């Protein structure tokens, strides 16, 4: 489980069909082999590490669902260690289970914020709502508006400076994870419209 508060941007050193090697620094202070790390919002297991790098394995499903296949050595990735039970929940509940990958359609400056307009995958239409939570490349953000085929978020200067979302540009791919609570509620309501819950009295 993660919070969507990015701790560090790492650098991709090497990418292969079965794994990644990522350069990192501060997050490695208390990370061990077998620990979970969110890489651009993807929950991955550390399988090897050195003084300034760690390795994770990737499966075909991971590459199909995410933007990892588009990354090149030298690209920046957002990193977050899994939550401690006694830590603050600064963002929202992020599982690290990416549902889709979508492209940025446009960016627009709005005062000190940068509005980012993103394609809306059809299968996620029920789960993305105005002012709701969303995770983009692992960063916990608030949805600003939603239309039939796109939605928007606004990035404050801190987010742009401390995550790879500061590189936002048209065509850039983003990993999307919608709010898990919203997904459960939507699925429950959809199921309830056709099937009576076994927990309700007859």
TrEMBL record:
SUPFAM superfamilies the record matches: Riboflavin synthase domain-like
Keyword flag Repeat: yes
InterPro entries cross-referenced by the UniProt entry: ATP_synth_asu-like_sf, Lumazine-bd, Lumazine-bd_dom, Riboflavin_synthase-like_b-brl
Superkingdom in the source lineage: Bacteria
Membrane as UniProt keyword: no
Top-tier EC class: transferase
GO biological-process terms attached to the record: riboflavin biosynthetic process
Record-listed E.C. numbers: 2.5.1.9
Residues in Lumazine-binding repeats: 1-92, 93-189
GO molecular function terms noted in the UniProt entry: riboflavin synthase activity
Residues annotated as domain Lumazine-binding: 1-92, 93-189
Keyword entries, A-Z: Repeat
Pfam family, one: Lum_binding
Signal peptide (residue range): none
Record's protein name: Riboflavin synthase
Taxonomic path: Bacteria, Bacillati, Chloroflexota, Ktedonobacteria, Ktedonobacterales
């Amino acid at each position: 489980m993660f919070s969507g508060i990015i701790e560090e941007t790492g650098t991709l050193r090497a990418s292969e069909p079965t794994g990644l090697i990522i350069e990192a620094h501060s997050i490695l202070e208390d990370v061990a082999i077998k620990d979970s790390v969110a890489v651009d919002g993807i929950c991955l297991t550390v399988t090897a590490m050195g003084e300034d790098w760690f390795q994770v394995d990737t499966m075909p499903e991971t590459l199909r669902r995410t933007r990892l296949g588009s990354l090149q050595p030298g690209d920046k990735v957002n990193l977050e260690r899994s939550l401690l039970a006694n830590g603050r929940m600064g963002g929202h509940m992020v599982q690290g289970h990416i549902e889709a990958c979508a492209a940025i359609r446009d960016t627009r400056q709005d005062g000190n914020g940068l509005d980012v307009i993103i394609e809306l995958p059809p299968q996620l239409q029920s789960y993305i709502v105005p002012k709701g939570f969303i995770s983009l490349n692992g960063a916990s953000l608030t949805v600003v508006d939603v239309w039939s085929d796109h939605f928007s978020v606004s990035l404050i200067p801190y987010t742009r400076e401390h995550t790879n979302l500061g590189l936002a540009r048209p065509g850039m791919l983003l990993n999307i994870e919608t709010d898990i609570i919203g997904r459960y509620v939507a699925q429950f309501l959809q199921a309830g419209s056709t099937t009576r819950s076994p927990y309700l009295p007859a």
